[in-house]
Structure formats: C-alpha cells, structure tokens
Write a structure and sequence with these properties.
Elements: E1 7-13, H1 18-29, E2 36-42, H2 48-60, E3 64-68, H3 75-85, E4 90-93, E5 99-100, H4 104-115, E6 119-127, E7 133-135, H5 138-141, H6 153-156, E8 165-168, H7 169-175, H8 185-195, E9 199-210, H9 222-233, H10 237-262, H11 266-283, H12 292-299, H13 305-316, H14 318-327
Parallel strand pairs: 1-2, 1-4, 2-3, 6-9
Antiparallel strand pairs: 4-8, 5-9, 6-7, 6-8
Helix pairs in contact: 1-2, 7-8, 8-10, 10-11, 10-14, 13-14
Length: 328
C-alpha cells in the first residue's frame, strides 16, 4: 500500500506509569506505516517523569507533537482538544498504557479504505500490568458487538474500544465541538460513522490492551465492578438499587441521549426515542419487566450471548439480580 494518507494518532496522558508510557510510545514510532502524526496532550500530570518522557520522545521523533495543558481538562475534554488539532484524512485514538502491534496502523488503514466506511475497530489481547498475556480475543471475552455496515447496535451499544478505532476526517468533523451530552468519544464516533458510510471491524488482534487498577473504562469485569461498588456502598438492597440505577443510566441511557443529540436521521431519532422510553421503563421496574421483545429489538445481536443474559437479569428480573449482587 502506498504511504499517501496521513493518519493522526491522538494520545491523552495523565500521570501515566513511566514503563507503560515508554512501551506505548515505542510501539507507535515503530509502526510499519510511517506517514503518521502523533498528537499528545498531557492533562496537567503531577508526576515529573511524564513530561520528561514526552519531551524525550518528541526530540527523538519529529512526528510527535506534545501539548501541555495549563489546567486539568478531564478525560473527554482532553480528547476533544486533540480532535480539534487533527487535520489528517484519518484519525486513530490511543490510550497511554497499551502496546500497539507494529502493523496496527497499516492494517486499520487498509481496512477502512477497502470497506469505504466511516469507522473500523480491531480486536486485541488483554495483558496485565507486567505485560503478561491474560486472554486472547477481546471481542469474544467482552462480547463486543460485531457490526458490518450500519446497525442499531451502534446506537444502543458502542462499536469497539476507542483505542481500537480508526475514523475518517468526516466522522471527526461531525464529532466536534463536543455537545453537552457527550459521555464517550468512542461511542459517539461509532454512532456518527453509522449515520454516514457505516462501520466494519478487524477480528485479528492488533494491540495489547493493558488491564490494571487505574483503567478508566473497559478494563474491569463484572465481579470487579460489583466488588468496587460494594466496598464503597455496601451490599444491602438499597445499595443494589442504586447500583442498578447508576449502571443503566450511565452505561445505557446516557449513551442513547448522546446519540439523540447528534442524530441527523429521522429513522434513527425515532429508534432512539423508543429506546430511551424502554430504559426509563426498566429503571422503574421493581419486580419483573416483561418487555423482553423490546430488549431483543434494541440490544440483541451477534457475539452478545453472555452479555445479553446478564443484561436481561439486571433489566427484567431485578430481584434475581439482587441475589447475584449479594453472592458475588
């Protein structure tokens, strides 16, 4: 493939572990596809080594541009800042603590061009804090929806981890400036791409996704999330009700409202309005919710069996969900 298209890689940092940061940056500058620009925005890190490492790599590689924020922007706003710096035809999101395989950019770019779509997301391996393999096939283990073309799943769910995505400039331009309801840049990117040329995925694992105690999103499993909640709030029925309400509002309802805020297609708006009403009914369910057909209409899909079983219990059978909550 001719190296003609510039790819911007957007990397936010904040108090990153030095070893993780070096490994991530090494994996970026050693990509087999060379026509890249790496924009890094440090969000007022309070540990000295972060800026030292960034300056070291910036001096080493002219493709790296480092921005030092004067005040803490927060995770979403830092990504918004980086998106506004990008001018390339294609954009990739990058976490500050993963390791990209050397052909991640090349294969992602090839796929998005061949598919002529707005977004492509890739599979990955899960590694621990020391870089040891935990599990292959993140798609399978995390029940990631597999979307080719357009699908309502890009509304009710997110299309891959942000650090797995490549998007077009057209998608990026629709994303910014962030509107008030933006709760996840990767979900938003998938939704906008879905309303444009659609989405595709690469089942091959193209990077190592590091799991550790400080993951912002995506790293913790159900047991870890439950244990963290119970440590802070207890395991009473009142605590469970708050957990259930928080999970549904934060991980489902807020995403649907964000999509409605950005939607430009009447059919999508109609779907989202019905989806929001469904979530509101679920939130008010005390004993049992028999709207199972609606659940499958809104959230059912390929590669989602285990996730759907857990969701059905949480959404439709809260008393059973409480028993599970207590026993974890």
């Amino acid at each position: 493939m001719e190296e003609e298209s510039l790819v911007d890689i957007l990397l936010p940092t904040y108090n990153t572990n030095e070893k993780y940061l070096r490994e991530q940056l090494d994996s970026l500058i050693n990509q087999t596809y060379n026509n890249i620009k790496i924009y890094i925005s440090d969000d007022c890190s309070t540990v000295k080594h972060v800026l030292e490492v960034l300056e070291e790599f910036q001096n080493k590689d002219s493709r790296i541009v480092v921005f030092k924020q004067k005040q803490n922007l927060g995770y979403n706003s830092n990504f918004e800042f980086l998106l506004k710096q990008s001018t390339a035809e294609y954009v990739m999101f990058c976490d500050h603590d993963d390791i990209w395989h050397e052909d991640k950019v090349k294969k992602s770019l090839e796929k998005i061009k061949d598919a002529n779509c707005g977004l492509v997301y890739a599979n990955c391996r899960q590694i621990d804090e020391n870089g040891n393999l935990i599990k292959n096939d993140y798609f399978k283990n995390k029940n990631i929806p597999l979307i080719k073309g357009t699908s309502n799943l890009a509304i009710s769910r997110y299309a891959g981890l942000g650090c797995s995505q490549i998007i077009t400039k057209e998608v990026k331009d629709k994303m910014i400036p962030f509107r008030e309801g933006v709760m996840a840049h990767d979900w938003l990117a998938g939704f906008i791409a879905n309303e444009q040329n659609g989405i595709d995925y690469i089942y091959e694992e193209l990077f190592d996704y590091r799991l550790h105690t400080n993951n912002v999103f995506g790293g913790r499993n159900l047991n870890q999330n439950l244990n963290k909640w119970k440590e802070q709030h207890g395991n009473t029925y009142s605590s469970f009700k708050e957990y259930r309400k928080d999970a549904i509002k934060r991980a489902y309802l807020s995403g649907a409202k964000m999509c409605l805020e950005y939607s430009e297609k009447e059919e999508d708006k109609e779907f989202i309005i019905h989806l929001i009403k469904y979530y509101e009914k679920v939130l008010n369910t005390r004993i049992i919710n028999l709207h199972l057909i609606q659940y499958f209409k809104f959230l059912g899909g390929k590669n989602l069996c285990k996730k759907m079983c857990k969701e059905l219990i949480l959404f439709s059978f809260p008393l059973i969900a409480y028993i599970v909550f207590k026993s974890r």
